Amino acid sequence: MSHRVTVNPITCEAHGMCAELLPERITLDEWGYPLVDDRPLHGSEVEHAMRAARACPTFALLLQRERTPRAGRVRARSG
Amino acid sequence: MSTPETTMTELHPRAGGARLDGPPALPRLLAGIRADGASTHAEHLELHGPLALGGGARRRQVREDAARLLDEVERSGLTGRGGASFPTATKMRAVAGARGRAIVVANGAEGEPASLKDRTLMETLPHLVLDGGLVAAEAVGADELIVCACESAGASVEAVELAIGERSRELSGSGSAPKVTLVSVPSHYVAGQETALLHYLGGGPAKPTFTPPLPFEQGLRRRPTLVNNAETLAHLALIARHGANWFRQLGTASQPGSTLVTLSGPVAHPGVYEIENGSSLTSLIEASGGATARVRAVLLGGYAGAWIGGELLQALALSQEHLAPHGATLGAGIILLLSEAACPVAETARVARWMADQSAHQCGPCIHGLDALAITVEQMASGSAEANAAQRADRLASLTARRGACAHPDGAVNLILSSLEVFAPEFADHARHGACEACARPPELPLPLRPVDAPGVR
């Protein structure tokens, strides 16, 4: 399981809480909107990312969980 | 640059009425075009023959028909003609494989000011688009087909309405055919974007939405939704009749078939043409009666596209694989020639401002980034920019691209960066001397608020 942070750019209103709470991953551009490093989070960062997502006044910061495919198994793709 | 393997190049002007001798010659889509109004269903059938869809009653039969159709589309190599050139069969399979009854949307909401091909198609050959929609519906198992036309293109709305009326018994939703409806959608630039269109059809504003879920999983009314460009569907109507091998007799290996393009700028007869993919730009210009002025550069792909300098025009082939090395694509088939008499800096400033205004104003980086870019280019045009304006533009470009819910900011940034590169001498000249004499000339690039001679319309 790996986690990434992303932003819904439509609901984001540049409150900037995320950059306060997750500075290791988020900086703000010149208009106050988040610039997000969306590579998988390190284990120790997940807790901070959750806190930042909960703190966003417009719920625009999203924490995405991704299942890492198990090694040695090839998943068949339909279609 | 090498020329494509298939060298046959035929072009067909929009106003022509020549009868097609038979596949595979061009014109294909535009074969049935009349000088006056839309072709009737009877004329359409006489030219192209009946559309033989499965129409099976048993579920197993329906599934087999759909699978056969999907295989044929895949073999044809048809790619989307709305701008992204995505493989049509891949999109269809995703919709067909998603849970729930599918809906097909024929996207004729052409928001690009320099594109006229979809409205031309719907205005003159509505039955080709309807047929394509029926084919797509069978392939993905849809029971609804929604045809979207641009509200500013009244003639195309009327033509599709009449065409549906002509076939009312067939298209009422009874029996195996889907129910067909027509919706006219707002004509602003981003309204034709896939999620914006679905947002509008679902009762919201015609503005993009945040994905996922993508339309193929959960589109209109949370049902899997196939959104295809009107021209893509028209090709599908002919592929269903003549097969994949016929389709591939024209074009290149990775982009088979023909494409509709909208040619504008200093040529004798601007308008909508059907070209073979991979054919040369010079042959298109010849077919349009030749250039009426010396050409400084050509814009491919419209206002989300890229410029190619005039010195490369002679060798330019119109296919994705030939254009990619120049950072360009054919996009939705928009080809704009800019004459040497125009000021490319002033033209870029006007387009940059227009693209900023066309933002749906939903995403901060798009709202602020495109506005700041437009201001920077306007200052460069007037000679009032600071010395580091080019670096500022680069920085703004990287702050703006890929940060919106849709690709609108990416397209605008693409165009501005391409302008800065291709017109570097003119930008340098403006930085030194300010506005030039040509800056005051009437605009050449068409924008809705500053009407110039729109090509190909009466």
What is the oligomer described by this structure?
heterodimer
Structural class assignment of chain B: alpha/beta
Note the gap between the termini of chain A.
26 Å
Helix percent of chain B reads 25-40%
Beta-strand share of residues of chain B? 5-15%
- Summarize the helix and strand pattern of chain B as letters: EHHHEHHEHEHEHHEEHEEHEHHHHH
Query: How far from one another are the termini of chain B?
Result: 38 Å
Which chains make the largest contact?
A: A-B, 15 and 18 residues
From the alpha carbons, calculate the radius of gyration of chain B and give it in angstroms. Answer: 22 Å
Number of strands of chain A: 4
Strand order of the largest sheet of chain B: 1-7-6-10-8-9
Number of β-strand runs of chain B: 10
- Approximately how much helix is present in the residues of chain A? 10-25%
User: How is the biggest beta sheet of chain A arranged?
Assistant: 2 strands, antiparallel
Q: In angstroms, what is the radius of gyration of chain A?
A: 15 Å
Shape category of chain B? globular
Q: Give the mean pLDDT of chain B.
A: 90
Low-confidence segments of chain A, given as residue ranges, are: 71-79
Order of helices and strands of chain A: EHEEHE
